Amino acid sequence: MTDTVLEVRNLRKAFGAIVASDDVSLDLRRGEVHALIGPNGAGKSTLIAQIAGGLRPDSGCVILGGEDVTACDTAARARRGLARSFQVSALAMDMTVLENAVLGAIGAQRGVWRFLGSALGDTRLVMPARSALARVGLAGEAATRVADLSHGQRRRLEVALALVLQPTCFLLDEPLAGLGADGSAEMTALLAGLKTQAPILLVEHDMDAVFRLADRITVLVYGRIIASGPPDRIRSDGEVRRAYLGDAA
Amino acid sequence: MRVEILVNAALACGLLAVPLLAHVMGEPFIITLATRAAILALAGVGLNLALGTGGLVSLGHAAFFGLGGYAMGVLAWHAQMFTPMSLFGLELAGTKSMPVIWLVAIVAGAGLSALIGFLSLRSSGVYFIMLTLAFGQMVYYFAISWPAYGGEDGLSIFVRNGFPGLNTLDPIQFFMVTYVALMLVLGGMALLRRSPFGLALAAARQSPARVQAVGVPVFRLRLVAFVISGAVTAFAGALFADLNRFVSPTMLSWHTSGELIVIVVLGGVARLYGPVAGAILLVGLEHILGGVSDYWQVFLGAGLLAVVLFARGGLIGALAGRAVAHD
Question: Do A174 and A52 sit in the same domain of this protein?
Fold first, then answer.
């Protein structure tokens, strides 16, 4: 299957007696949005951390672009095309929006071992950074310090930093977290356009957005996948309704 | 930003003008003070890359400073005793040439900081501080207990080392050597800070997870910064030992590490000229307050407290205002 960009196989991770990932397998195919949902404590964050590289699974493997990356750290996975965003914005707060985006370009171009020459004077870094900012509607804020941005703008900068990596897949951890109705609508539109560039593995609590965006949905409860399939089937799945949607929707 | 450039220029000019004036007026002691300030500033500039830009609070930089001092002491001692040293079966002559001594100090400083950095940088925060302190003290106790090079008493060098074409025994000429060294390193740091490497290093201080997530290996990034930092501080150590014509384990003790941190904090953490301001301030206070009271360090402590509480940007911050993002 050359269509599969990212694959997780039989991932297992336990913290003491608590099994946070219990034989989890899923994949992400070209052109799709695959949403990962589940109630709090379902093990979504643990799973994300194992996919992104921050956490080693006890067993199982993560395959990115046909290559087993289970032994790779976060940076190595990013260089192999995995772009993640963070649930709680992880940005260089004292830097400008443009500098943050340029950091992404430095990572994408493996230009960090250049000790001379101005980063902000290098068009090869600044051009892709600016175009990523334009995509998320932050072109006008390029010179603003990140600390002075609104929450919604920071969420969009998170997406810009994933975009500038020109990844083969996106791993977006609650990109809508904390956004108001307008912000959510804007972000949903932004994400819908993103999937043509690279498929998205989306972790999100906002069910409206999930059902609008997702081509497939996987439901995680107590570390196990209880259902996986197209949105219609998930919506009508009895077990899912009981475990999750029932009290959310 | 513009104000900061003016402040920097004023510091650079002042540090040059005072000893030149002292030279004209025949006050060699003032020149020695300025030389001391320039050398401590250089050591602080080294530390500032790790501590300021990188956010790596090292309490072990005395190890690099002292190692640079011992590089000078050992090489010059062998030269003045006309006894070659044997290293891995090789017979090597000592030297009284500053450029050679500097090169040895820089290489040794880089090597030691690579080792200490490699072992310490996997931790962060307080643990990193404690690890660097522990490694620094290991080097200190090693120097005390190793009798070959003076042990606790240190090494005295009879005549200051030479620099081709200069008479380094002349205070103003030796000052110029240290001043030019400081300015060249500051120039290099200015370039480094705005380079992709410098931007990533500063970003890794603020959000290591992000830097990792864009594919930049944070550990290696910090290690390289730590090595550059240690090499610069070792260079300063060689100059410092040459100024005093003496090196002893005191240069390696954690008090020295603390003093270097004080220089950086007083002047302004992560400011390019912060260590220059800090070193001038420290040497000046030491001289002026030291004449007023034996307990001058009490006042220094009070000053440091005031800086930490009220002027987080140090002297540069107080004069030039808040830093404008990353420069």
Answer: yes
Q: Do B203 and A99 touch (CB under 8 A)?
A: yes
Nearest CA in chain B to A120: B194
B215 and A165 in contact by Cβ < 8 A?
yes
Same structural domain for residues A1 and A72? yes
**To the nearest whole number, what is the mean pLDDT of chain B?**
93
Same domain membership, residue A174 and residue A248: yes
pLDDT range class, residue A236, cuts 50, 70, 90: confident
Closest partner CB to A94 (pick from B195, B196, B206) = B206
Q: Write out the DSSP string of B2-34.
A: HHHHHHHHHHHHHHHHHHHHHHHHT-HHHHHHH
User: Cβ of A114 and B196 within 8 Å?
Assistant: yes
* B30 assigned to some structural domain: yes
The yes-or-no verdict on residue B159 having pLDDT over 80 is yes
Kindly tell me if the per-residue pLDDT of B271 is higher than 80.
yes
Chain A contacts of B197, Cβ < 8 Å? Answer: 112-115
Q: Examine the domain organization and report whether A211 and A233 are in the same domain.
A: yes
Beta carbons of B195 and A79 less than 8 Å apart: no
More confident residue, A210 or B91: A210
- Are A101 and A154 part of one and the same domain? yes
In a domain, A195, yes or no: no
Q: Which of A140, A166, A192 is the last residue of a domain?
A: A166
Q: Quote the pLDDT of residue A63.
A: 96
How many Cβ pairs closer than 8 A exist between chain A and B? 122
ipTM over 0.85: yes
For residue B258, name the pLDDT band (cuts at 50, 70, 90): very high
Of the candidates B196, B209, B216, the beta carbon closest to that of A86 is on B209
The distance of A197 to chain B (nearest Cα, Å) reads 17
Contact across the interface for B207 and A92, Cβ inside 8 Å? yes
Q: Please compute the mean of the pLDDT values over residues B165-171 and round it to a whole number.
A: 94
Nearest Cα of chain B lies from the Cα of A122 at a distance, in angstroms, of 9
Chain B closest CA to A105's CA: distance in Å? 8
Q: Establish if A191 belongs to a structural domain.
A: no
Among A189-198, A212-221, B130-139, B287-296, name the one with the lowest average pLDDT.
Answer: B287-296
Does residue A186 sit within a domain? no
Q: The domain spanning residue B65 has which CATH number?
A: 1.10.3470
Nearest to B214 among A52, A120, A161 (CB): A161
The predicted pLDDT at position A239 comes to 82
- Out of B194, B213, B218, the one facing A84 most closely (by C-beta) is B213
- Domain limits for position B93: 2-320
Domains identified in chain A, total number? 2
DSSP string, chain A: -TTEEEEEEEEEEEETTEEEEEEEEEEEETT-EEEEE--TTSSHHHHHHHHHTSS--SEEEEEETTEE-TT--HHHHHHTTEEEE-SS----TTSBHHHHHHHHHHHHTT-TT--SS-STT-HHHHHHHHHHHHHTT-GGGTTSBGGGS-HHHHHHHHHHHHHTT--SEEEEE-TTTT--HHHHHHHHHHHHHHTTTS-EEEE-S-HHHHHHH-SEEEEEETTEEEEEE-HHHHHH-HHHIIIIIHHH-
**Residue B99 belongs to some domain of the structure:** yes
Predicted confidence at residue A247, as pLDDT, reads 54
Which residue range is the domain that position A144 belongs to?
89-166
Q: How many domains does chain B have?
A: 1
Look at residue B326 and tell me if it is in a domain: no
Could you tell me if A16 and A135 lie in one domain? no
